[in-house]
């Protein structure tokens, strides 16, 4: 392994990528001589308008692109410029554009913990979208109205979203593991007109009822006029009067599917921030911005093409659900899974990959770490010949997990450690099928995004740690926040540090190869003695120890300074004795620096995480300092915070 190089595509593979075809198209159209990713990236930032216009044509977007590519705001060209200001299109029309050509081929394949697959063809998908659109029409849903899903990751969830988008309305969703209060924090703000839910769902071998929680949501959100129930297992549920059964809606005659074209910047999705410091922000994303950006990220960065099998382990409360669904626009078959990734055993997702010949497998970094801890080696038990791309996101992918992927999953694979988030419903940093993978690095910055690293003085730096920023405008910037009439919440979230520069909140380093190394969230950075330390640097080494199942680290205010405090969840049968503490400290001191070594190490039985699996570092920090965590409902396991209150170790 030379200089951390883990994988590089061979010449034949590079030549046949969509990215290579796109470069050829740019060279022909614009009389350029671009060669390779770095050339294209530099051109796409310099000529971003030409890039997005070329992408519209290359990916075959259906719609009227309008007369101009970008209406540049003279005062705030990065924050307030409008992309494709006169364009008209429909998101669902573009996701279903391959349906006629591939009518009898699978559009979606669904499997749950029972591991019995259910397939929906493109023809069946269109027919069912038409039926649900017709139902929404009869309920008076109009462009601009909100329709919500309180749903598992089912094919019917995709259908309900596409029906909503087909008529120009707005879709928002959350997963059924959210409690009623969490759902009310979200849907209570966006006020949907129709709510789709399910009768029950399965997780880790258990069945959970959904109807009672859904009815409580309806009772507390006056805007909801109709509740529709989707049977999870296909059996007809017993429903109260006034509640509609999905099966009945499909049985009714419906006119052929129609698409209502709307403005490029019309709202399509409302996504929600985690909400750990207050009510979740309701982030509005546009029809054209989402479509164009996802086409870029799927086709150019991930080489997704017609006939591919596209899988992402996600719930409907995470933006990766929206990201996954857009792969239909590239002609890919969605492989959907709902349930635990470790039930009935750790092989459940890899059996799915083998049976359905998955080409892109997406997951969270924590899942890969858990597989490694359990000694799972998918390549030894499953045929993964079709697998070309593995995406990881949600948290920092440690260098050791890079090794694990290539040693235990597949050696000939594009490993894309992607990073962005709900804020842009996409990525600032992701993969390149033309470029090598280096250990511990995300491959490349996203095309047409002027992503840089700023130091504390606001200067762009390379090979130094700093803040991830974006210094230009891009189509998938949020339309704004719901009910943020003067735009102040939107401005304060991203734009208030340096005028007209997007600050994303990641602590990173831009490498000599043009890749990116992540060190954690910048608001969780530790600062002992004035030295900035990314939390991921500590997790990387502590979580590799066999005695440690998980950990969370914070900075505690202590004697006019900050000291590092590490909480660890131990493996079964392990005791946090002095020898283990010394092992932890020695590991951190050796692998990091003496500054990284925690002053206090304490044991807990659970580590708080958000519903999407992200560490709730700020919540732990607040509890340790005696401050209230205002939105406990944002956490998957809020009761775990009780263990962090008034710890005697933290007063010594």
UniProtKB/TrEMBL annotation:
Matching PROSITE patterns: AMP_BINDING (PS00455)
Residue stretches in coiled coil: none
Entry keyword Nucleotide-binding: yes
GO molecular function terms listed in the Swiss-Prot or TrEMBL record: ligase activity
SUPFAM superfamilies xrefs: Acetyl-CoA synthetase-like
Keywords: ATP-binding, Ligase, Nucleotide-binding
Acetyl-coenzyme A synthetase N-terminal domain segment(s): 37-94
Domain of life: Bacteria
Entry annotated with the keyword Cytoplasm: no
InterPro entries according to UniProt: Acac_CoA_synth, ACAS_N, AMP-bd_C_sf, AMP-binding_CS, AMP-dep_synth/lig_dom, ANL_N_sf
Domain spans labelled AMP-dependent synthetase/ligase: 97-469
Family to which the UniProt record says this protein belongs: Belongs to the ATP-dependent AMP-binding enzyme family.
UniProt-listed PANTHER family: ACETOACETYL-COA SYNTHETASE (PTHR42921)
Entries under NCBIfam families matching the protein: ac_ac_CoA_syn (TIGR01217), PRK03584.1 (NF002937)
Protein name per the record: Acetoacetate--CoA ligase
């Amino acid at each position: 392994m030379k200089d951390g190089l883990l994988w590089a595509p061979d010449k034949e593979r590079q030549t046949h990528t969509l990215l290579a075809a796109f470069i050829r198209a740019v060279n022909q159209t614009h009389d350029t001589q671009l060669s390779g990713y770095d050339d294209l990236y530099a051109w796409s930032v310099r000529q971003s308008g030409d890039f997005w216009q070329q992408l519209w044509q290359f990916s075959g977007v259906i719609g009227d692109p309008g007369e101009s590519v970008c209406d540049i705001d003279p005062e705030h060209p990065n924050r307030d410029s409008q992309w494709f200001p006169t364009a008209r299109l429909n998101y669902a029309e573009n996701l279903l554009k391959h349906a006629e050509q591939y009518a009898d081929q699978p559009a979606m394949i669904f499997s749950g913990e029972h591991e019995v697959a259910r397939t929906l063809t493109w023809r069946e998908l269109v027919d069912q979208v038409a039926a649900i659109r017709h139902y929404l029409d009869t309920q008076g849903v109009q462009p601009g109205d909100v329709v919500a899903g309180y749903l598992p990751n089912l094919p019917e969830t995709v259908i309900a979203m596409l029906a909503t988008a087909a008529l120009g309305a707005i879709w928002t969703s959350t997963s059924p593991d959210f409690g009623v209060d969490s759902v009310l924090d979200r849907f209570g703000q966006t006020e949907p007109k129709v709510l789709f839910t399910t009768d029950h769902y399965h997780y880790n071998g258990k069945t959970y009822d959904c109807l009672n929680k859904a009815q409580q949501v309806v009772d507390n959100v006056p805007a909801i006029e109709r509740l529709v129930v989707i049977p999870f297992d296909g059996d007809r549920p017993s429903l109260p009067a006034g509640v509609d059964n999905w099966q009945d809606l499909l049985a009714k005659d419906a006119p052929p599917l129609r698409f209502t074209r709307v403005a490029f910047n019309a709202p399509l999705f409302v996504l929600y921030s985690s909400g750990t410091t207050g009510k979740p922000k309701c982030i509005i994303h546009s029809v054209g911005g989402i479509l164009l950006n996802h086409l870029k990220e799927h086709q150019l960065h991930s080489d997704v093409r017609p006939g591919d099998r596209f899988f992402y382990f996600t719930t409907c409360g995470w933006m990766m659900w929206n990201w996954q669904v857009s792969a239909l626009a590239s002609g890919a078959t969605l492989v959907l899974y709902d349930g635990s990734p470790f039930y009935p055993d750790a092989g459940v997702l890899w059996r799915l990959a083998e049976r359905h010949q998955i080409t892109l497998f997406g997951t969270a970094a924590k899942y890969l770490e858990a597989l490694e801890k359990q000694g799972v080696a998918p390549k030894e038990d499953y045929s993964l010949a079709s697998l070309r791309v593995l995406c990881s996101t949600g948290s920092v992918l440690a260098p050791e997990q890079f090794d694990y992927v290539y040693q235990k999953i597949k050696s000939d694979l594009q490993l894309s450690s992607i990073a962005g988030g709900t804020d842009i419903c996409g990525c600032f940093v992701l993969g390149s099928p033309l470029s090598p993978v280096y250990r511990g690095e995300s491959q490349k910055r996203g095309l047409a995004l002027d992503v840089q690293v700023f130091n504390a003085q606001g200067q762009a730096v390379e090979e130094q740690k700093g803040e991830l920023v974006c210094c230009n405008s891009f189509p998938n910037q949020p339309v704004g926040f719901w009910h943020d009439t003067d735009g102040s919440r939107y401005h304060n979230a991203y734009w208030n540090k340096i005028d007209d520069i997007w600050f994303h909140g990641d602590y990173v380093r831009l490498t000599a190869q043009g890749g990116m190394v992540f060190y954690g969230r910048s608001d969780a950075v530790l600062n002992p003695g004035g030295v900035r330390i990314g939390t991921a640097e500590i997790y990387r080494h502590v979580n590799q120890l066999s005695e440690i199942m998980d950990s969370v680290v914070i900075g505690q205010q202590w004697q006019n300074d900050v000291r590092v405090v590490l909480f660890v969840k131990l493996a079964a049968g392990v005791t946090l004795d002095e020898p283990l503490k010394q092992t932890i400290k020695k590991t951190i001191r050796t692998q990091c620096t003496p500054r990284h070594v925690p002053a206090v190490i304490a044991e807990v039985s659970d580590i708080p995480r958000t519903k999407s699996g992200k560490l709730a570092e700020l919540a732990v920090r607040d509890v340790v300092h005696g401050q209230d965590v205002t939105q406990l409902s944002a956490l998957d396991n809020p009761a775990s915070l009780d263990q962090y209150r008034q710890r005697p170790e933290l007063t010594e």
